[in-house]
Every structure is written in C-alpha cells, then in structure tokens.
Request: fold
Amino acid sequence: MAGGPVSEQRLRDLVLLRRVRDRIDREYAQPLDVAALARGVHVSAGHLSREFKRAYGESPYAYLMTRRIERAMTLLRRGDLSVTEVCFAVGCGSLGTFSTRFTELVGMPPSAYREQAARGSAGIPPCLAKQVTRPVRNREARTSLPPLAWPT
Reply:
C-alpha cells in the first residue's frame, strides 16, 4: 500500500485474516481447508485466498502446510516416531503429499531429515535447533546472519 491512511474496511479485513492465521497456527493438526477457514470468518473461499495471499504473501493452504512441516521437523528431531506417525500427527492425510511438501520446504525427504537430525543436533539446545532448522518457503531468501558458532 502507498503511504496513505489505511481504510477502516481494510483494517477489519486484516483483523479477520489474522484470525484465520491464528486458527491455522492453533489447529494445524486438525482437518482444515480453505472453505472451512472462510466459513469461520464469513467470506468466500476465493476472497479469503486472495486477501490472505495479499496480506501474507502465500495462500492459506501453503501457510498451513508450512506450519505442519515445521511441527513435523520438531517431531522428527525427537526421533521417537516414524515418518508415517509424524505425517498423521501433524494433520496430513497423505504420506505422499506430506513427503513431497516436506522435501520442497526442507530440501530432503523426511526420513533423511530424521537421520541427519539424529546425528547433527546432539548437544544443541532445542530452542536453538528450532530456529536453525526452520524451513525456508519457496522463493524466500535465507537471512544474511552469520552461522552460529558452537563452542567445542
């Protein structure tokens, strides 16, 4: 938006979009689709998709899948669940879709990530492991921060 004042309607729309995003963050493991999310804020699915993408740079579905993959990464790092168990625990109904989206966002299949995480995260506090291993969405640039140096 240009530097002018934001209309009251646009502010109301942004409040609704934030509610949708918060719902996705809270209920990522539940069966959610764009139509159900749109019904929750009393707009059409098409309108919700267009406005969500305008506000957040990605569709509601892409945002939902990113939340699911972030949670899956955490569960896979723990190492006590199989890839299939993780897939269903984060709300994905298809192992194929889960694996494809995981590979797109993380750069490797979930099984390879699980093996690598088991070897590579020993000694890293979980709060830092989450930050360092956060998936990068398509076309999203990595930050230019220097890599973390771990004392040896």
Summary: The longest helix spans residues 8-27.
